[in-house]
C-alpha cells in the first residue's frame, strides 16, 4: 500500500529580518507564497522492523542526504513517536524543488512525509497537531502544510493565512550549486556590523508585514506586488554570490515586472504580468547563460495534500 503527497515550494514575497536574538535566531516578518513547482513524496508500507528507508530521484537527487538527517525521514519518525508506533515505511522523494535553493525544499519534503505517513498509517492526526510536529522539524515546515500565502512571525513558524485574489505568474532561475541558509544569515549580520548599524535585536527594529504588500496580494495586483517585493537577505546572498546580480538583471531586461532573490538564495524569483510573459522570461533567462535553468510557474497553490493512494 502506498500514498503519494504533492507539496509546493515557497518564495518569500517579503522577508523582513530582525536583529540576532540571544538564542541565535532572528525575528522575521516572512510572507510565504506557495508555488506550483513542487516535490512528491510517496510513503509505502514496510515490514515490521524495517525502519524508515529513503530513495530520491530528480535532477538534484545527488545532493539530497539519504541518511537520518533527511527531513522526510525525520518527519516519519517524529509522527510515529508521537503515536507510539514503529516508523516502518519506505519514503520515495521525486525531487523537483532545487536543493539548498532558498525554496524550502527539505521543509516541503518534511511536511509531505507527515501527511503521507499519517494517511498510510491511518492515524487521522488533527491539523493542529501536524502543525506543531512540523514546527518541531523546522521553521519553514508548517507553511508547507498550510500552502497558499501566509505571514510567518517569530522564527517564521507562527503562521497566519493571508487573503489573496487570483493567480500570480512567476519564473524561478535555478543556480548551479546551493547557498547555506545559516551562512547567508551570518553574512547579513556581518554586513550590518560592517555598515555600523549593529546586528543585535536591540539594534535592528523588529520587522513587520508591509501593508502595501498585503493589499497587493488581497487585490490580486501583480504590479503593486512587484513594487513591494523585499528580501532583507538579498544583499547577503549577493555578497556571497555576486553573479546573482546578472541573473536578476537578465530577468528584468526580459520583461519581469519584479525580481528578488528567493529566501536565502541562490534561486532568483521573477514576477510577470501574465502566464505568457512568464514563458518568455523563462526562455530568455535560460538562453542568457546567467542560470542553470529557468522555470515558469504560478501560485498560490494549496499545501501538502494526498494525490494518490
Ligand atoms: P530554506 O529555504 O528552508 O532555508 P533551502 O531551500 O535553501 O532551505 P533545502 O533544499 O531545504 O534548502 O536544503 C537545505 C539542506 O537541507 C540541504 O543541503 C540538505 O543537506 C538538507 N536536507 C535535509 N532533507 C532534505 C530533503 N528532503 N531535501 C533536500 N535537502 C534536504
UniProtKB/TrEMBL annotation:
<protein>
    <recommendedName>
        <fullName>4-diphosphocytidyl-2-C-methyl-D-erythritol kinase</fullName>
        <ecNumber>2.7.1.148</ecNumber>
    </recommendedName>
</protein>
<feature type="active site">
    <location>
        <position position="10"/>
    </location>
</feature>
<dbReference type="Pfam" id="PF00288">
    <property type="entry name" value="GHMP_kinases_N"/>
</dbReference>
<dbReference type="InterPro" id="IPR020568">
    <property type="entry name" value="Ribosomal_Su5_D2-typ_SF"/>
</dbReference>
<comment type="pathway">
    <text>Isoprenoid biosynthesis; isopentenyl diphosphate biosynthesis via DXP pathway; isopentenyl diphosphate from 1-deoxy-D-xylulose 5-phosphate: step 3/6.</text>
</comment>
<dbReference type="GO" id="GO:0050515">
    <property type="term" value="F:4-(cytidine 5'-diphospho)-2-C-methyl-D-erythritol kinase activity"/>
</dbReference>
<keyword id="KW-0808">Transferase</keyword>
<feature type="domain" description="GHMP kinase C-terminal">
    <location>
        <begin position="214"/>
        <end position="288"/>
    </location>
</feature>
<dbReference type="InterPro" id="IPR004424">
    <property type="entry name" value="IspE"/>
</dbReference>
<feature type="domain" description="GHMP kinase N-terminal">
    <location>
        <begin position="70"/>
        <end position="148"/>
    </location>
</feature>
<keyword id="KW-0067">ATP-binding</keyword>
<feature type="active site">
    <location>
        <position position="140"/>
    </location>
</feature>
<dbReference type="InterPro" id="IPR013750">
    <property type="entry name" value="GHMP_kinase_C_dom"/>
</dbReference>
<feature type="binding site">
    <location>
        <begin position="98"/>
        <end position="108"/>
    </location>
    <ligand>
        <name>ATP</name>
    </ligand>
</feature>
<keyword id="KW-0414">Isoprene biosynthesis</keyword>
<keyword id="KW-0547">Nucleotide-binding</keyword>
<comment type="function">
    <text>Catalyzes the phosphorylation of the position 2 hydroxy group of 4-diphosphocytidyl-2C-methyl-D-erythritol.</text>
</comment>
<dbReference type="InterPro" id="IPR036554">
    <property type="entry name" value="GHMP_kinase_C_sf"/>
</dbReference>
<keyword id="KW-0418">Kinase</keyword>
<dbReference type="Pfam" id="PF08544">
    <property type="entry name" value="GHMP_kinases_C"/>
</dbReference>
<dbReference type="InterPro" id="IPR014721">
    <property type="entry name" value="Ribsml_uS5_D2-typ_fold_subgr"/>
</dbReference>
<dbReference type="InterPro" id="IPR006204">
    <property type="entry name" value="GHMP_kinase_N_dom"/>
</dbReference>
<comment type="similarity">
    <text>Belongs to the GHMP kinase family. IspE subfamily.</text>
</comment>
Amino acid at each position: 500500500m502506498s500514498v503519494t503527497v504533492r507539496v509546493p515550494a515557497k518564495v518569500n514575497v517579503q522577508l523582513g529580518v530582525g536583529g540576532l536574538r540571544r538564542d541565535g535566531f532572528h525575528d522575521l516578518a516572512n510572507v510565504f507564497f506557495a508555488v506550483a513547482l513542487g516535490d512528491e513524496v510517496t510513503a509505502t508500507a514496510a515490514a515490521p522492523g524495517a525502519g524508515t528507508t529513503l530513495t530520491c530521484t530528480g535532477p538534484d537527487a545527488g545532493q539530497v542526504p539519504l541518511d537520518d538527517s533527511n527531513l522526510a525521514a525525520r518527519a516519519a519518525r517524529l509522527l510515529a513517536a508521537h503515536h507510539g508506533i514503529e516508523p516502518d515505511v519506505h519514503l520515495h522523494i521525486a525531487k523537483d524543488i532545487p536543493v539548498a535553493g532558498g525554496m524550502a525544499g527539505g521543509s516541503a519534503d518534511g511536511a509531505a512525509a507527515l501527511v503521507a505517513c499519517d494517511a498510510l498509517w491511518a492515524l487521522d492526526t488533527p491539523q493542529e497537531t501536524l502543525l506543531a510536529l512540523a514546527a518541531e522539524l523546522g521553521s519553514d515546515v508548517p507553511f508547507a502544510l498550510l500552502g497558499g500565502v501566509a505571514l510567518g512571525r517569530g522564527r517564521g513558524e507562527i503562521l497566519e493565512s493571508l487573503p489573496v485574489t487570483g493567480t500570480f505568474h512567476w519564473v524561478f532561475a535555478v543556480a548551479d550549486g546551493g547557498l547555506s541558509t545559516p551562512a547567508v544569515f551570518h553574512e547579513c549580520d556581518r554586513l550590518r556590523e560592517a555598515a555600523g548599524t549593529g546586528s543585535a535585536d536591540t539594534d535592528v527594529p523588529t520587522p513587520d508585514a508591509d501593508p502595501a504588500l498585503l493589499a497587493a496580494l488581497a487585490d490580486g495586483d501583480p504590479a503593486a506586488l512587484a513594487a513591494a517585493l523585499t528580501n532583507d537577505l538579498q544583499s547577503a546572498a549577493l555578497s556571497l554570490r555576486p553573479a546573482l546580480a546578472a541573473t536578476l538583471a537578465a530577468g528584468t531586461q526580459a520583461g519581469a515586472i519584479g525580481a528578488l532573490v528567493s529566501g536565502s538564495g541562490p534561486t532568483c524569483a521573477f514576477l510577470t504580468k501574465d502566464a505568457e510573459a512568464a514563458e518568455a522570461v523563462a526562455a530568455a533567462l535560460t538562453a542568457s547563460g546567467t542560470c542553470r535553468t529557468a522555470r515558469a510557474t504560478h501560485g498560490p497553490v494549496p499545501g501538502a495534500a494526498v494525490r494518490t493512494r
